[in-house]
Design brief:
The structure holds two protein chains of two kinds. Chain A is mainly α. Chain A has eleven helices and no strands. Chain A has one domain (about 1-225): Orthogonal Bundle (MetI-like fold), CATH 1.10.3720.10. Chain A has helices at about 1-35, 40-55, 55-70, 75-80, 90-115, 120-125, 130-140, 145-160, 165-170, 180-190, 190-225. In chain A, helix 3 (about 55-70) packs parallel to helix 9 (about 165-170). Chain A is globular and about 65 Å long. The model of chain A has no long low-confidence stretch (mean pLDDT about 90). By secondary structure, chain B is α/β, with parallel strands linked by helices. Chain B has two domains: about 1-100 and about 210-240, Periplasmic binding protein-like II (D-Maltodextrin-Binding Protein, domain 2); about 105-205, D-Maltodextrin-Binding Protein, domain 2. Chain B contains eleven helices and twelve strands. Chain B has helices at about 1-15, 35-45, 60-65, 80-85, 115-125, 140-150, 155, 165-175, 185-190, 220-230, 235-240, and strands at about 25-30, 50-55, 75, 95-100, 105-110, 130, 160-165, 180-185, 190, 195, 200, 210-215. Chain B is elongated. The two termini of chain B are about 20 Å apart. The model of chain B has no long low-confidence stretch (mean pLDDT about 90). The chains are: A mainly alpha, B alpha/beta. At the A-B interface, helix 3 and helix 10 of A face helix 2, strand 2 and helix 3 of B. Chain A: GO terms for molecular function: molybdate ion transmembrane transporter activity.
């Protein structure tokens, strides 16, 4: 019993961590571009990356399954370069989860980048800072609340992910069976007591995580007023 | 009795499968998840082979299998999907069989439901009746058959509340949000009787058959074949019946 719980919780945390790290790497440049660009394609790009907010998770899971499956374009590519088929593996659910959580990471980052404005960057450039210096010593500290919100939102969204992971992962014990799917299993087996415990744990966890975001943001807000 | 059953099982399966302990991965329709866990335990005790169980809706599992899911046995909630896999060459031809037959029940948390007259009386009294979506849930379609067959559909039409699947329908009634509804007996059956409230067990002559078919998806694993043989054995059938299915 505790063995299964441990496996499930460990897998869930691993998934959320991997997804958050990958998203930070991918979403930061995109959010930066969106915050700075004057391009007329900006609305189109913004819309494309916000689509996961709208689509029902099972619908998205279904299309990702077709896309990543052995007959889909991405699936063919991944087999060609020796990665094998992605669905029903940890890599597969990580990719699906990252796609679905994308807007939750991009949007807070974009907002905080936009809030910095042009002035601090111009000043830094005048003082001779390289663009990397500028990013590390000006943008990251100023956008810190945005990064924290993005990390917590991305992590929490990946922890709570259900429809996409069930479809792409296939509910396989030890490989793709994460916490939300385990709760679903308990409910299907009418083991409501176990389901309540796991669901209760998730409520406590998410409350703490969200509390952290709001505390940090409030602190940042107070600091900027002072 | 239980010991006898175990010894018998052990004798049957130890002799035919002396191979090393293996594993079989089974994709199961959610309605049969709980019985399968019990069957898996019995199979493990008898043979030493492990069963990895993955539950989902029959439709979703079908889509996953078509797209290369690594399942070896598929226990569906209908006949259509295993049949389709067989036709599409995604399963082993000739391995399909009915492992369980669903029993429809008109269920309420109140006492007093037992016979057809009770059902008709209840139908006149209640404000809402829960059924599973008849378009994609076999039990929902069967419930429609029953009401049409008994000529009470007109009376019921305005009272129907549709659950997305049979699990949601069960939740409507068990939470008393809806006074009564058509559910699967397997959902309300514990230790050989209706655990809470009361139910009219609908005679199967009033609706389409609720056959659930199993099929083998790959012939590279002997354990998978052994598991399907086990599902058709007398002790396994007894377990299946104890969960409110006919077979």
């Amino acid at each position: 019993m505790f063995d299964t719980y441990f496996t499930v919780i460990w897998l869930t945390i691993k998934l959320a961590t991997v997804v958050t790290l990958v998203l930070l790497c991918v979403a930061t440049p995109l959010a930066w571009w969106l915050s700075q660009t004057q391009s007329r394609f900006k609305p189109v790009v913004s819309a494309v990356f916000a689509v996961p907010l709208v689509l029902p998770p099972t619908v998205m899971g279904f299309y990702l399954l077709l896309l990543l499956g052995p007959n889909g374009p991405v699936g063919r590519l991944s087999e060609m370069i020796g990665l094998g088929t992605l669905p029903f593996s940890f890599t597969g659910i990580a990719i699906a989860c990252a796609v679905h959580s994308f807007p939750f990471v991009v949007q807070p980052l974009q907002n905080s980048f936009e809030a910095i404005g042009k002035r601090p960057l111009e000043v830094a450039a005048t003082l001779g800072a390289s663009s990397f210096d500028c990013f590390r010593n000006v943008i990251v500290p100023l956008a810190r609340p945005g990064f924290i919100t993005a990390i917590v939102m991305g992590f929490c969204h990946a922890i709570g992910e259900f429809g996409v992971v069930l479809m792409i992962g296939g509910n396989i014990p030890g490989k793709t069976r994460v916490l939300s799917v385990e709760i679903y299993n308990h409910v299907e087996a009418m083991e409501y007591a176990q389901a309540h415990w796991l669901a209760g744990g998730m409520v406590v966890f998410s409350f703490i995580a969200l509390l952290i975001i709001y505390l940090v943001n409030q602190k940042a807000a107070n600091r900027s007023i002072a | 009795m239980k010991l006898f059953k175990q010894v018998l099982l052990a004798a049957v399966f130890m002799t035919s499968h002396l191979a090393m302990a293996g594993e079989v991965s089974v994709a199961v329709a959610s309605n049969f998840y709980k019985p399968l866990l019990q069957l898996a335990e019995e199979f493990e005790q008898a043979t030493g082979h492990k069963v990895a169980v993955s539950a989902g809706s029959t439709g979703a599992l079908y889509a996953q299998i078509k797209n290369g899911a690594p399942f070896e046995v598929f226990l569906a909630a209908d006949q259509a999907r295993p049949e389709a896999l067989e036709k599409e060459d995604k399963a082993i031809a000739g391995s399909r069989f009915t492992y369980a037959q669903g029993q429809l029940a008109y269920w309420s948390m109140q006492k007093g439901l037992e016979a057809e007259e009770d059902f008709k009386k209840s139908l006149a009294e209640v404000e809402h009746v829960a059924i599973a979506n008849p378009k994609n849930a076999p039990y929902g379609a069967a419930a429609m058959d029953v009401m049409n067959e008994l000529g009470v559909y007109q009376q019921a039409a305005e009272k129907l509340v549709e659950g997305n699947n049979i699990g949601q329908t069960y939740q409507y009634v068990s939470s008393k949000t809806v006074e009564a509804g058509f559910v699967a007996l397997s959902q309300i059956y514990v230790d050989g009787r209706v655990a809470e409230g009361s139910a009219w067990l609908v005679p199967s002559s009033l609706h389409r058959v609720l056959n659930q078919d199993a099929i083998l998806l790959t012939d590279t694993n002997d354990v998978a074949r052994a598991f399907l043989d086990f599902l058709q054995s007398a002790p396994a059938k007894e377990t299946i019946r104890s969960f409110g299915y006919k077979i």
